[in-house]
């Protein structure tokens, strides 16, 4: 008698095949058992190391059907050799491969100085180009009322402004309060200068020195740290070169810039 072997399991009960995805550096996945979500930073000996947005690392086994990619179950496999295209921008956002810059919106983001604009461009530039947001810089906070009046913010032309050292009761705070409206948002960070928003660890220093009141802050910092105080522009370029991504910036700045981008693109 001929023997037959049949799988009588209903098709809807059988595990469905899932795609195999190379664990390339920068790929963002979630481990469903723990809910940990992060970017791949390493893959070896059957395990993958993920880093979340706050810099925390976790190691997980690369088991079949072990991860979620954009909400879908996948199996991570060892990455193939060859160049890897980054999947995260410097701001931590998901990169859009091949994305072209969008035509500029009527809305704008203003920052207080050239150094502020250069830092925003370095970390958020890819995001801003995709969204079509232009960043410009003020000559000073005293010019803000006239700039807002000339800009005439409206529903289709929102204006966001980032101000240095915005603390309650200060001159900057009073100006910001006067120009804030439904279509104009002014936010600030607590630092005297945008330099201070760069984490000391990114520069290999223990901390930003205190500068006595009445003394130029940049000059005082350079002198205290042994940097050339006669050319603060060159010092800033050296600082900026040490900023690789949002991880090198203080969260008080990160949150404010993200808030402005959300406001202008809403």
Automatic annotation (TrEMBL):
Pfam families: DUF3097_C, DUF3097_N. Residues 20-79, 108-265 form the DUF3097 domain. It comes from the Bacteria. This is DUF3097 domain-containing protein. The lineage of its organism: Bacteria, Bacillati, Actinomycetota, Actinomycetes, Kitasatosporales.
């Amino acid at each position: 008698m001929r023997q037959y072997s049949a799988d009588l399991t209903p098709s809807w009960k059988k595990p469905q095949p899932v795609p195999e995805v190379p664990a390339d550096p920068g790929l963002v996945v979630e481990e469903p058992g723990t809910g940990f979500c992060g970017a791949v930073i390493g893959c070896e000996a059957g395990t993958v190391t993920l880093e979340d947005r706050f810099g925390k690392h976790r190691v997980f086994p690369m088991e079949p059907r072990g991860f979620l990619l954009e909400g879908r179950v996948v199996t991570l496999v060892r990455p193939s050799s060859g160049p890897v295209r980054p999947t995260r921008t410097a701001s931590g956002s998901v990169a859009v491969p091949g994305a072209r810059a969008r035509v500029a919106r009527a809305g704008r983001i203003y920052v207080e100085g050239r150094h502020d604009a250069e830092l925003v461009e370095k970390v958020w530039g890819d995001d801003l180009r995709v969204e079509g947001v232009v960043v410009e810089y003020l000559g000073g906070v005293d010019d803000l009322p006239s700039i807002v009046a000339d800009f005439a913010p409206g529903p289709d032309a929102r204006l966001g402004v980032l101000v240095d050292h915005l603390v309650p009761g200060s001159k900057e705070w009073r100006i910001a309060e006067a120009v804030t409206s439904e279509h104009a948002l002014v936010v600030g960070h607590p630092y005297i200068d945008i330099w201070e928003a760069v984490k000391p660890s990114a520069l290999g220093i223990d901390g930003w020195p205190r500068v006595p009141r009445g003394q130029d802050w940049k000059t005082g910092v350079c002198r205290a740290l042994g940097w050339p105080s006669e050319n603060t522009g060159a010092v800033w370029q050296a600082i900026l070169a040490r900023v690789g991504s949002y991880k090198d910036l203080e969260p008080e700045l990160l949150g404010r810039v993200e808030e402005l981008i959300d406001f202008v693109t809403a």
